[in-house]
């Protein structure tokens, strides 16, 4: 299976722990700010904002923090920061392509942090465009507690899905065109499926198979280091790795 899908599934299971460390609070709060800034500051008419708020509540972020983040995005609350979205690109061990989506108020600081993370873990931060051509942005719905794949397939097709993948025994990721994400999310929920997450994600057109234990360990450490940075929102990589090697490399 695609290694990053498995890795993403593991990271979701760690979300509660990460939230206690404050990382998820910062990450989701910034996502709310950007969503409110890019559309109307009303979740009823802004799917991106509505999804970010749902994630915030699931992570236990207080309502006051959510409202303050919406106000920052709407421009009615000024704390002196000016967040901008930047995408960074590079290569990890074994030639794995890595996309990093960041929200920052200081480009120099973020670039320096990312460059250090890459260089210390067997990778290289590259120029814009060096790996993005290998990825396409898709809408992804994560569906939990899947008991009937045929019913999931039928509902997914009705919602405009392009494909789906079982990331573990009962969890699926359903992919669609980026513009169809809201429609797919609504259709799956209307059919009674438990959609735990709906997001835009960069999907690789091809994957690099990682078999060497040392490279696997360095790659997963690099991704973990990148994801731990406050300015980083999402990390996507085009690797495949067996579950056994991934588990062994995370010890």
UniProtKB/TrEMBL annotation:
<dbReference type="Pfam" id="PF01709">
    <property type="entry name" value="Transcrip_reg"/>
</dbReference>
<dbReference type="InterPro" id="IPR017856">
    <property type="entry name" value="Integrase-like_N"/>
</dbReference>
<dbReference type="Pfam" id="PF20772">
    <property type="entry name" value="TACO1_YebC_N"/>
</dbReference>
<dbReference type="InterPro" id="IPR049083">
    <property type="entry name" value="TACO1_YebC_N"/>
</dbReference>
<dbReference type="GO" id="GO:0003677">
    <property type="term" value="F:DNA binding"/>
</dbReference>
<feature type="domain" description="TACO1/YebC-like second and third">
    <location>
        <begin position="83"/>
        <end position="239"/>
    </location>
</feature>
<keyword id="KW-0963">Cytoplasm</keyword>
<dbReference type="InterPro" id="IPR048300">
    <property type="entry name" value="TACO1_YebC-like_2nd/3rd_dom"/>
</dbReference>
<keyword id="KW-0805">Transcription regulation</keyword>
<dbReference type="InterPro" id="IPR002876">
    <property type="entry name" value="Transcrip_reg_TACO1-like"/>
</dbReference>
<protein>
    <recommendedName>
        <fullName>Probable transcriptional regulatory protein BC008_35730</fullName>
    </recommendedName>
</protein>
<dbReference type="InterPro" id="IPR026564">
    <property type="entry name" value="Transcrip_reg_TACO1-like_dom3"/>
</dbReference>
<keyword id="KW-0804">Transcription</keyword>
<keyword id="KW-0238">DNA-binding</keyword>
<dbReference type="GO" id="GO:0005829">
    <property type="term" value="C:cytosol"/>
</dbReference>
<dbReference type="InterPro" id="IPR029072">
    <property type="entry name" value="YebC-like"/>
</dbReference>
<feature type="domain" description="TACO1/YebC-like N-terminal">
    <location>
        <begin position="5"/>
        <end position="75"/>
    </location>
</feature>
<dbReference type="GO" id="GO:0006355">
    <property type="term" value="P:regulation of DNA-templated transcription"/>
</dbReference>
<comment type="similarity">
    <text>Belongs to the TACO1 family.</text>
</comment>
């Amino acid at each position: 299976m695609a290694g990053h899908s498995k890795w993403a599934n593991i990271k979701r299971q760690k979300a509660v722990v990460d939230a206690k460390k404050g990382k998820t609070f910062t990450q989701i709060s910034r996502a709310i700010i950007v969503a409110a800034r890019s559309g109307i500051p009303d979740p009823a008419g802004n799917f991106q904002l509505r999804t970010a708020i749902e994630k915030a509540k699931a992570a236990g972020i207080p309502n006051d923090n959510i409202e303050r983040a919406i106000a920052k995005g709407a421009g009615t609350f000024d704390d002196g920061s000016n967040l901008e979205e930047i995408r960074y690109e590079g290569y990890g061990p074994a030639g794995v392509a890595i996309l990093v989506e960041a929200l920052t108020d200081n480009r120099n600081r973020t670039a320096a942090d990312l460059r250090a993370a890459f260089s210390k873990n067997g990778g290289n931060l590259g120029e814009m465009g060096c790996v993005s051509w290998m990825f396409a942005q898709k809408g992804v719905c994560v569906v939990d507690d899947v008991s009937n794949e045929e019913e999931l397939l039928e509902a997914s097709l009705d919602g405009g899905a392009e494909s789906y993948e079982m990331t573990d025994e009962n969890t699926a990721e359903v992919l669609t065109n980026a513009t169809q994400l809201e429609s797919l999310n609504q259709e799956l929920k209307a059919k009674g499926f438990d959609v735990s997450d709906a997001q835009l994600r960069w999907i690789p057109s091809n994957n690099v198979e990682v078999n060497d234990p040392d490279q696997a360990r360095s790659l997963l450490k690099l991704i973990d280091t990148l994801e731990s940075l406050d300015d980083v929102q999402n990390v996507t990589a085009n690797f495949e790795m067996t579950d056994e090697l991934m588990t062994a490399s995370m010890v």
